[in-house]
UniProtKB/TrEMBL annotation:
Protein's UniProt name: Solute carrier family 35 member G6
Record region (Disordered): 11-31
Annotated organism of origin: Carlito syrichta (Philippine tarsier)
Compositionally biased region (Pro residues): 16-29
GO cellular component, one term: membrane
Length: 342
């Protein structure tokens, strides 16, 4: 046999190899090659910490500015857009065009228009229906529409845990907004109530569309370009609308200016984090994680604004947090540095 030849100590490949013993484990990676979170996990964490939790402060600060000086919603949007304009200096220093490369300029402008339209619909819906109801309808519609668009346009499937988290977060928002729907007919007509919820739904649909458009953009200065365009197009659309539809107000007390500055800074941070997160994770999962904004707003509503929170609000917030935990835990995967894929 070849394996027993005195001059050639070769294995006999004609014989089956002995079974492996339990002690024969693959060599472990060195200690410096630790586990790193996957791109999906990074995107969801950024959306949670920088998008949802930060955006939860925007609504209460906006309400405080309105209570202090009756600041119109379009004027607040204009102040928010001013915080986006200094990004033009960064683009100029880098030598990048302000409107993006010529081949994707149409899509960058479309992304900015959809974003402005989404926020404008949200602000308009708040004037007709309660702010909490409008926000929850916008978040729920953006999640459902993002899931449908991702399946239709990208053929990107979701796992069973992801679908469970999506349905759970949507159910939590329904628990929050559902019991209050019956009382809306007492103070407003059915036509205006329906119009408010249609605007909130359109705002969520526009949000899901602009996230899909942003995922299709791929050039180095993508994030600062869309950030600047949002401020530019937002000003071009809000300034005429303010003088036509509303009355400008100049805040005189320091509290209003502090609230306006806080809204502008926090909204800018949330905008950048959500735009980055959607390039790393599924848009529907990002929208579901952003439901944490409603939970933060409810907490501030109770502790800061001293407004009552109903028991079904607490129940819905618990369902939303549980759903976010399911989505995050399911996507918590580790990628070992230097691992070779077969």
């Amino acid at each position: 046999m070849a394996g027993s030849h005195p001059y050639f100590n070769l294995p006999d490949f004609t014989q089956p190899s002995p079974p492996s013993t339990p002690s024969s484990t693959p060599p472990s990676l060195p200690s410096h090659q630790c586990c790193w979170p996957s791109d999906t996990t990074k995107g969801l964490l950024i959306a949670l910490l920088g998008g949802g939790l930060v955006a939860g402060f925007v609504g209460p600060f906006s309400r405080m500015a309105y209570q202090a000086s009756h600041l119109p919603s379009l004027e607040l949007l204009i102040c928010r857009c001013f915080f986006h304009l200094p990004i033009a200096l960064l683009l100029k220093l880098r030598g990048d065009p302000l409107l993006g490369p010529p081949d994707v300029r149409g899509r960058t402008c479309l992304h900015a228009l959809l974003n402005v339209f989404s926020i404008a619909c949200s602000y308009s819906a708040v004037q007709v229906v309660p702010a909490g109801n409008a926000a929850t309808v916008r978040k729920a519609s953006s999640t459902v529409c993002s899931a449908i668009l991702a399946l239709c346009l990208e053929s990107q499937s979701l796992s069973g845990y992801d679908w469970c988290g999506l349905l759970g977060s949507t159910l939590g928002l329904i628990i929050i907004v559902g019991p209050g729907l019956g009382t809306l007919q007492e103070g407003t007509t059915g036509l205006y109530t329906t119009l408010g919820y249609v605007l909130a739904f359109l705002g969520g649909l526009a949000l899901s569309l602009e996230l899909q458009v942003y995922r299709s953009l791929n050039f180095p200065s993508c994030l600062p370009t869309v950030t600047f365009l949002f401020g530019l197009l937002g000003l071009l659309g809000s300034v005429p609308g303010l003088f036509i539809l509303q009355t400008p107000v100049l805040p005189r007390d320091p509290l209003s200016w502090i609230c306006v500055a806080a809204v502008g800074i926090l909204a800018l941070i949330s905008f950048a984090c959500v735009s980055y997160a959607v390039t790393k994770a599924h848009p529907a999962l990002v929208c579901a994680v952003l439901h944490s904004e409603v939970v933060v707003a409810l907490m501030l509503q109770y502790y800061v604004l001293n407004e009552t929170v109903a028991p079904y609000d607490i129940m819905g917030a618990g369902v939303v947090l549980s759903s976010i935990a399911i989505i995050t835990a399911q996507n918590l995967s580790c990628e070992r540095e230097g691992q070779v894929e077969e």
